[in-house]
């Protein structure tokens, strides 16, 4: 928190929403021009704003359902191309590391072609989301919320304690998702539960960010949790994609099977790392 008179939670929250909104608006031309990392940064900004609106709902005082939905839809429209690109890069690299009898060059080329086709097919959807009437309305509503907030009485409380309270609430929500994953049946049920835990960890991380440097430790620990759950989800999605590729390219089915086994191994390694990372992430925040 800044030095001087202690700001209220509402002051900090309004400034954070305003700053992220302008970041979102500032990325429009870069995404249209397909500049490196622009789509990724816009998706992150959508997630930050959406998580803020969800986590700080008790302070905001107005119905933000439409804003949350708009941000989710925008991130999804941007995400199809980006997700395919990232997954393609992962599988192409893995394919090139296959033994010679698996024909690594042929498999890498097939995976790369699959990713290129999927990425190109998703690009028009992303541009349509940017150029339609929904985005200007979304930006105007976010700017209005930041400029003329109708916050609840909780927003008048000192920022450090109130922001800590919100982050702690999101941390407890993450803990429930982790517990659900521990109790889930092996296989798809565990994968789904861990994906839900990842989303909860992401919201908790973004809930801490408005507190600034005081929340650095908490944000870092929650990001580490988000990252291990994210690489686990990447392995799960890669495995599902390999099923599809094997069905459409049966000549290389054995190679895809080898790659699939490697995804299972990677996912198991992430699950093994999770308890230690969660132990650190579960430390109570204090801003």
Report on the architecture of this protein:
The protein has 287 residues and is mostly helical. Helices cover 79% and strands 0% of the residues. The chain has helices at residues 9-26, 28-32, 38-55, 57-60, 65-96, 104-131, 134-147, 159-183, 188-208, 216-248, 253-281. Helix 9 (188-208) packs antiparallel against helix 10 (216-248). The longest helix is centred in the C-terminal third of the chain and has 33 residues, at 216-248. The model has no long low-confidence stretch (mean pLDDT 94).
Rounded to an integer in angstroms, the radius of gyration calculated over CA atoms is: 21 Å
> On the 0-100 scale, what is the average pLDDT?
94
Q: How many H/I helices?
A: 11
Structural class: mainly alpha
* Morphology: globular
The largest β sheet comes out as:
none
Protein traits:
11 helices; 287 residues; mainly alpha; 0% strand
Secondary-structure blueprint:
Layout lengths: L8 H18 L1 H5 L5 H18 L1 H4 L4 H32 L7 H28 L2 H14 L11 H25 L4 H21 L7 H33 L4 H29 L6
Summarize the structure.
The chain is mainly α and 287 residues long.
